[in-house]
Write a structure and sequence with these properties.
1% strand; mainly alpha; elongated; 10 helices; transmembrane
Length: 267
Amino acid sequence: MSTPHPGLGPLASPADLRSAGDWLTRHDLIGTRVTPVLASRLAVRRRARLGTHIMLAALIMGSSLVAALSGFRPQPLPMLALAALVAGLLVGQSLLDWWVRRVDQRAGATLSRRAAHSIQPGWQEVLGRPYAAFVAATVAGAMALAGSALGVPDPTVRHMAVVLLICLLGGSAVMVLQLRHLLRRPVVAEDEESLTADVIMRIEDARELTMPSVQWSLPMVLVFGFAPAWWGAAAVAYVLVGLGAFVAIQRRMPSSAVAARQAMGAR
């Protein structure tokens, strides 16, 4: 049975400890000790990441429902409901980020000492230029698709494009909130191994949020099939080119463990 751990509440569960051990092994940190602090930090990140995925799925389903309820025509009430959904998404993501940061702060308060030469990685170490460029191009491409649909004479397509733009803005805002949280997250480490694990967590979270599921899914869900053939071809090309670029970046970039050691060595 778990016992209290100062500042962290209940001790990490046996499942969390096993999962932390597997995580260390996957990242070649075999000599690093599995601690309740590390297990708790990894567990809260898994749960927060699941919460983000659920909220983004709700955004996709909610936008489809709004389009259906409005009869593919601008209606005040469904559009207000969509705006409320996007606002709720931002509030929910802020609460998830606060939860993760709170666990980190409590974990840091339990450490008897801090790692020497503690670092605070910037966006280039956490995300990297290739991933940052990919995110910017993906968001810009999705916005361009939605903007081009606004110029179609069909009122149904224009209405769908408005819904798409609102949802894309909400999804992009969530991405910015997550990246801001990653960059401001406190460093929690007491030795070189735990410092490496801290940086790996940041890099993994950053790479996870670059997966543009909303930007790729929403144009297909909302506008594909209603817009002209040229728009459909552009949407398919956008997804295929983006997928190819994403795979190429993942194959060329070093693993999160290697990137973390490089970031630490550069400081």
